[in-house]
Structure to design on (348 residues):
């Protein structure tokens, strides 16, 4: 907990203001408002500011290419550590960010999704107060705005609202799996369990990432999740760790297909999986049910897994994941045109 001192209250006030302004930047692109909070001419500080400008440009450009307008962003931070060292303050905090949007060609109401990030930053004090000296965090929006994928012919996305009814299943409990994914989506806005992971499992965030561990929990947790039976190769040893197929992305992918637990609907670039075909009139991605999985391939390796938890009011598939934490986020947000998607249906 943060001690109750004047200096720590000043730091807390500065950080709340900074993160609120950065959230506002995502919507209104008011660059001048955040510039005064950085140490100009210091390499690390200048880089940190450029990253915020870049993520705002990415989000705005992604929205333009999807026919979406972002209308609001709200930031909530929780400081977990403040350590003073002369005119420096080293901070650890987590941020829950809520983003709201609507479709330009629709009368449907606005909708929201959440992102959660963990930050390590250093502040420097000057004569007027505190400034951001350097910062690190794993940003799910850290992508090149020029590499946002679009449909092959540049037309509108073919999504339509569907899959309102979730089949009960005889082996896989989809409703419980979705509830689990929403409850344990971590520090993302919208997640349950007071933004905490399920403490029955080890958190692999700092040792390679927790996305596959989370996907395994969603489909396999016997108490709250989908309840797929664990096997000798794919299982979690409570009080210890998960097997390689439980926590490693490539191993998990191979297990799902070889075991018969999962069936690959399709794979390919963004333009491939959203393209209407005779087999998939609304694109292959529209065949995913809530409780199914998407694998993300970069440079030939499966890099990430997300859980499909539903669709927005235009039929855009929404996903939850860990590292970074996501809650009902459009499935391709934060990925680029080189990303390959593996669409996996979990057999009921």
């Amino acid at each position: 907990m943060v001690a109750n001192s004047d200096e720590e209250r000043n730091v807390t006030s500065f950080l709340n203001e900074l993160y609120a302004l950065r959230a506002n930047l995502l919507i209104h692109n008011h660059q001048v408002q955040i510039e005064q909070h950085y140490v100009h001419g210091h390499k690390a500080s200048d880089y940190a500011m450029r990253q915020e400008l870049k993520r705002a440009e990415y989000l705005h450009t992604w929205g333009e290419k999807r026919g979406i307008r972002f209308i609001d962003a709200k930031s909530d931070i929780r400081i977990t550590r403040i350590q003073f060292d002369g005119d420096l303050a080293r901070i650890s905090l987590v941020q829950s960010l809520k983003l709201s949007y609507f479709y330009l060609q629709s009368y449907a109401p606005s909708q929201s999704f959440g992102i959660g990030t963990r930050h390590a930053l250093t502040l420097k004090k000057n004569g007027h107060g505190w400034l951001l000296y350097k910062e690190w965090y794993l940003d799910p929006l850290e992508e090149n705005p020029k590499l946002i994928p679009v449909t092959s012919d540049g037309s509108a996305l073919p999504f339509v609202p569907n899959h309102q009814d979730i089949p009960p299943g005889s082996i896989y409990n989809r409703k419980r799996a979705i509830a689990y994914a929403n409850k344990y989506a971590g520090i993302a806005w919208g997640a349950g369990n007071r933004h905490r992971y399920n403490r029955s499992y080890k958190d692999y965030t700092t040792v390679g990432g927790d996305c596959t561990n989370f996907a395994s929990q969603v489909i396999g947790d016997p108490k709250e999740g989908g309840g797929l039976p664990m096997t000798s190769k794919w299982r979690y040893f409570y009080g210890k760790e998960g097997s390689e197929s439980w926590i490693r992305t490539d191993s998990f992918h191979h297990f799902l297909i070889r075991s018969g637990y999962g069936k690959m609907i399709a794979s390919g670039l963004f333009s491939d999986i959203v393209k209407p075909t005779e087999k998939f009139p609304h694109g292959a991605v529209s065949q995913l049910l809530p409780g199914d999985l998407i694998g993300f391939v970069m440079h030939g390796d499966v890099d990430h897994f997300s859980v499909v938890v539903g669709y927005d009011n235009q039929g855009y598939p929404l996903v939850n994941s860990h590292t970074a934490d996501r809650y009902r986020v459009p499935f391709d947000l934060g990925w680029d045109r080189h990303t390959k998607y593996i669409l996996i249906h979990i057999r009921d």
Q: What stands out?
A: The helical segments are 6-28, 31-35, 43-66, 174-183, 211-220, 244-247, 249-259, 270-274. Strands lie at 68-85, 88-103, 111-126, 129-137, 262-269, 293-298, 301-311, 317-321, 325-330, 340-346.
